[in-house]
Amino acid sequence: MPAEDEATRLFGTAAPPAPYRFLRAGLLAARLEEGNLRYIRYDGHEVLRAISYIVRDRDWGTLVPRIAQLQVEESDDSFRVVYRASCVSGDACLTYHARIEGRADGQLLFSVEAIPDRDFETNRCGFSVLHPIDGVAGTPVTVEHCDGAIRKTVFPDLIEPWQPFKSIRALTHSPAPHLSAACRMEGDTFEMEDQRNWSDASYKTYVRPLELPWPYLMPAGTANRQSVDLRVKARAKKAGEISRPGRHDGPLRIELGDVIATRFPKIGLAVAPDEIRDVLTHTGLLSEIGPQAILCHHDPTTGHGKQALAGFAELQRSCPARYELEYVVTCESDLGAEFEALSEQVRSAGLKLASLAVCPSVDRQSTPPGSAWPDCPPLEAIYEAARKAFPDIPLGGGMFSYFTELNRKRPPVALLDFVTHATNPIVHAADDESVMETLETLPHITRSARAFIGANTPYHIGPSTIGMRQNPYGTRTFDNRRGERICMAADDPRQRGRFAATWTVGYGARIVPAAIGCWTPAAFTGPRGVLDEATGALLPIGEAIAGLAGFADARLIDCRVSDDKRLAAIAVEMDGGPALLAANLTTRRLEVDFKGGYELAAFEVRRI
Predict the structure, then answer these.
(1) Alpha-carbon distances, residue 507 vs 21, 153, 275, 404, 593 (angstroms)
(2) Taking every pair of C-alpha atoms in the chain, what is the biggest distance, in angstroms?
(3) Which of 83, 211, 306, 587 lies 20 to 30 Å from 151, alpha-carbon distance?
(4) Residue 104, number of CB atoms within 10 A of its CB
(5) Which of 606, 499, 512 is nearest to 552 (CA)?
(6) Quick check: 226 and 188 in contact, CB under 8 A?
(7) What is the model's pLDDT at position 12?
(8) What confidence tier does 159 reach under pLDDT thresholds 50, 70, 90?
(9) Is the whole model's pTM more than 0.70, yes or no?
(10) Which of 220, 212, 28, 227 lies closest to 124, judged by CA?
(11) Dihedral of alpha carbons 329, 333, 339, 341, sign
């Protein structure tokens, strides 16, 4: 198969990922990619996930720099990188000169001088330093503040809704028992946010406190200088201590244990009013997938009304399932009157609802730290009005946006029958590796959610697509006419490739321990759907979701894989016997051994 065709099959686009090269100086190693550093390691251990110089526009979109005059020099004990880059926003251009130096003694210095030709508007301009979460969450860190004060603390274990550390000058932690890594950031005031909120697999230390006004102007002709100075020190290893992390050589293992009480979640597909006609054209394929729930999005602030509900009712007559209404509360008039009007419209349309989830319209936009919360009726009043108008069906609340917003505005759980939120993997980064790495964060999200919603409260997730349904952090999602890998895009090309199918199976494998009641992994049609509208056939993600829907309500079999960053697997006990669904999360061929109390021949095995 030609390389271009293979890329399109896997990623939905022939556009190649960003090129990179490795830099090494003794035991210090890093990856240079688009002028920034990723996967900084020492003696094989990941010290930092990334050091990046980032320029954001007023919608928090990342401006892509144009890099010129790139020079790279390497020797056995050092490397040096210099380049010139420019970012354009409106009629202003920001030009910056970057310098990266690494040495075998464990020092890595990244410095930038930036000068705009005109007043340059930005929400953030400067360094972002990412600490990984694997082996770091809950472990000690020493924080040096800008006033010189030293604080010994720990990286957050449960996901922190607000900044865990502010006014940061340096952070020191141990990426391995024999290593100490001190990261000093100069040129501005830095603070940290827990990026697991957005499903990023990192803690991010970034420039300029969020409590300061944004967007802001960088004055024309004024130089802005910043630097990140990382110093890794190694002590002598103790007897029997392993210095380098183990390599994953040989076959991966899937180990199966006992059948457990937790059941696989019901599977839903989302439908918006403007998609109903297309869905009705392909009801046969919808039935083939067999979702247990249809999540009907209804937003009167965008003009949805009686006609939308009538369309859902027509679809319900063609495709029976649990129809769950996701209602955006306008809060523009008396709450009782708003919900009574909705109830009357639902009745007159003939729509039979299995549940109702509600979220105030203003809560779909993020309220960052330091910002004033928008006017909104108390959630207790909203839920009371919804209960009164819909007394006979389960009521859900939470956020129609992401876990971030749920974590920052936690609902009165006792008044709800279930709690819901969505996730999105391309808020901060959109390359293939970063998207796959978001799977690492899902157990942290579900564990943190369970900490405040309770172990027994029904818990729903979705929609959880790669493409962004709605942007809580700006005025719009971003156009992607060229089918690229870009942040906050409504239409991501990987939805149409095998990438989305494998990522979705990986998502399912990571959330099942949290006893999710219903999970909506996609829409049916549209840019975040499972239908290839050009051929009328299911996309690979549609085939994967059909397999997942077949597992709904089945009891899980304890299923462990030796490297869950490369392989995802879900095993369930079904009426016809056990079934296993496995997905290779890489682009390389994997050899897999199967172990446990079952014979592989006894399984219905599906590979994605």
Answers:
(1) 30, 31, 25, 18, 22
(2) 76
(3) 211
(4) 15
(5) 512
(6) yes
(7) 95
(8) very high
(9) yes
(10) 212
(11) negative
pLDDT tens profile 515-571? 999 999 999 999 999 999 889 999 999 999 999 999 999 999 999 999 999 999 999
Instruction: Give CA–CA dist 114/33, Å, rounded.
Output: 19
Q: 535-540 contacts: CB < 8 A, separation 24 or more?
A: 536/282, 536/285, 537/285, 538/285, 538/288, 538/289, 539/495, 539/496, 539/500, 539/501, 540/497, 540/498, 540/500, 540/501, 540/608
Q: What is the DSSP letter of 265?
A: P
CA dihedral 134, 138, 144, 149 (to 10 degrees): 180
Residue by residue, DSSP assigns 165-183 as: EEEEEEEEE-SSTTEEEEE
- Tell me how long the chain is: 608
Domains and CATH numbers, the chain: 3-234 (2.70.98.10), 251-264+554-608 (no CATH), 265-553 (3.20.20.80)
Q: Which two tokens stand for residue 525?
A: 């049609």
For residues 31-58, one letter each, b for 16 or more C-beta atoms within 10 angstroms of the residue's C-beta and e for the rest, the string is bbbebbbbbbbbbebbbbbbbbbbbbbe
Specify the amino acid at residue 308.
Answer: A
Q: Are strands 252-263 and 592-596 parallel, antiparallel or unpaired?
A: parallel
**Distance from C-alpha of 40 to C-alpha of 56, rounded to nearest angstrom:** 23
Cβ atoms of 426 and 468 within 8 Å: the answer is yes
d(CA 511, CA 502): 14
Please give the structure tokens belonging to residue 584: 């290779």
* d(C-alpha 271, C-alpha 312), whole Å: 9
Burial 329-364 (b: 16+ CB within 10 A, else e): bebeeebeebbebbbebbeebebebebbbbbbbbbb
CA–CA dist 584, 151 (Å, integer):
42
Q: Are 461 and 423 in contact (CB under 8 A)?
A: yes
Q: Report which residue type is found at 124.
A: R
- Average pLDDT score over the chain: 94
What amino acid is encoded at 392 in this protein?
Answer: D
Banded pLDDT at 257 (limits 50, 70, 90): very high
Q: Which amino acid is at 6?
A: E
> Residues 489-530: pLDDT tens digits?
999 999 999 999 999 999 999 999 999 999 999 999 999 999
Closest CA to 100 of 19, 171, 46, 24: 24
- Asked if pLDDT for residue 309 goes beyond 90, the answer is yes
